[in-house]
Design a protein that fits this description.
single chain; Leucine-rich Repeat Variant; HEAT repeat protein; globular; ARM-type_fold; about 700 residues; mainly alpha; PBS_lyase_HEAT
Length: about 700
Amino acid sequence: MPVSSGTVSGMIHEFGGIAWSELSHAYGQADDVPGWLADMASADAKIRGEALSSFVSAVHHQGGVYDSTIASLPFLFALADDPVMPDRASIVGLLVSIGQHALDGEGLGYVDSGHDQCARAFRARSAAFLAYAADNERGVRHRAIEGLGLFVDDADLAVAALRERLLAEDGSAERLVVVAAMATLALRLLEACEPVTLWLKALSHDTTVEPEVRLAALVHAVRVAPGLLDSTTVPTAIGLLREISHPVSGPRPKCACTASKDEQQQDAPPEIVAAFEDLDRWGRLHALTTPLLRTFHEFLDARVSDRTALLAEQLTSPHQGSRHDAIRMARELISTWRGDHSRLIGLLADLVDPDTPDTTAESAETLAALAPLTEPARPALVAYVTAQTPDAWTHPDPRSRRAYQQSVLALATLNDPAALPPLLTALDGDTDAWRAVQASRHLPEAAADLLPRLTRRLYRADLSTEWSDMSTNALISALSRLGDPAAVPVLVHIATTAADHRSCHLTAYALNALASFGSAAAPALPLIHSLTTADDPAVRASAASALWAITTAPAVPVAILTALLESHAQREAAEALGRIGTPAAPAIPLLRTMLTASYDWTRIHAAAAIWDITADPTVLSILLTAWDENPATAVFVLACLTRMGPAAAPALPRLREELARPHRSDSFLHDVSRDESVQHACRTLLASLSSSSVKERLESIMISVKPDGEAV
């Protein structure tokens, strides 16, 4: 479809006189826009794809809705309306995405976001989506059906159109979208709720339709009418999963790790490239029922036993795509809810199989993320890794290579010696050595083998490059965690080099690593003394902290750190002063001032330091309040409560409350290891405080009894 500048100009005022400058500003020069729109209609698929990608980046970045997004709507609808437009399905899908994000933000008061205006524009265009949903092109229909549930405000019209689409469509993918759109409509329009609920209930029992559609009807029926969820719902869903003989899935997209050399030759470090590959994999679907089952798990939420039973069926499905997609759902359940997940861990371990490298890699990566709960998976991981030589780390097939590497990394999180040979192979070469560096920190018993290799890499680090901090930080962290004082010389070297390059963050990081070695880091003292007067407050704080850790002479560090309590490095300074303890008493007035800060992390660092210096129990309330308000502070607060000992007794109710919670602490971070450490700290502290309380009561009883045994 040729898009002329005249056509473009004629559309400018269609949506309430929205400024043309909004669109031209987002995309570039105004004169370029007609050519860009023409590119979106190009017969060349590559040109179309690049133009569409440019549009999304310019005016719909990460789902955003801006004035420029609204200004573009007339042009997008023009492209979608033209029957000869190539790849209209992509344009319709983009329109649905914009409209859905507009509806999500409607009425929420976003400043200058245009969500309300955009949502109104889509409702005004509801007839277009009714037409798209009945289009001759299957892809257009598939993308448009969702719009019937989102943008059509006439409930009777929308219900009728969707029921018609279910009868007319002969593809399971489209029929599943119809069912989901019907549920969306019922959740959006009250008047659609009852007829949709009855329709979904009937459909879920209709044995003349495929089990995928009946499963969708079952799931969406309980979404629309939660009262329908009962003890039979999940078993019925499991039965329907077993009926599905061949879940439909699209062609497996090219693995991101098989990208061409030109795609791989980027300036970004391998860690960044790998992160984008992970994002690409994250968005892939391998089975038609995956979105539906994700929705079901979201709805079941805290029904952990039901979700576990459902996942057990998914993870043992005869269809690899279903098993593969279930891995992430299992990870999300275990990362969010506490409990005994050994059954799911065992099923994940069963998926570690040389015949299915993609699924093995996904499962092993998940097992690594779920440590320390993954002990039951150790035998399967050891068997998989040891069945191959360490050279499998550099396997020429990228899928097999990723599967092996992820399995090795999962073993490393368990501190298993079977992970060491392949890690040494990786560190001796250049293939994905960065992964081996990160895993090395889990194997302190292998420091003698790992240290020389890590040290050699750190000496070769080029701190003049843009991304140098990323790889260098990982090496420093690994050396610090291994705990071998033989690392001190290279840490002195890297701290010196970082200071010369004015890399403040890296300098402070290296100084903190040196401090972890205590008096064994004495060779670093000349450098540390020189950095106590550095311009950057964070570097001065780290230098003063290291000076104390190595010499235990408090005068100079206390003076430096106290002055830093009024800088942006105040939290680092407070923590270091707390480690110094009683000799840091001159800092108390400034630390007490920090207790009134608006930021909870500032308050708890000050409170912990005050306790460590003065043993003032009044700071306990500040720590507990911060923990209540921000679960992310749990690890820090619990460490201080542990140091407080019996003085932390008023925290007993809070400890019991934390252990009674089924939801993981700070679960949005999906950090199982962190939550497990929170639970361990709570149990240990609870036991300690309870025994102290019993001991005090016994002593009180003994004091109140006369020598002859008569009570006073």
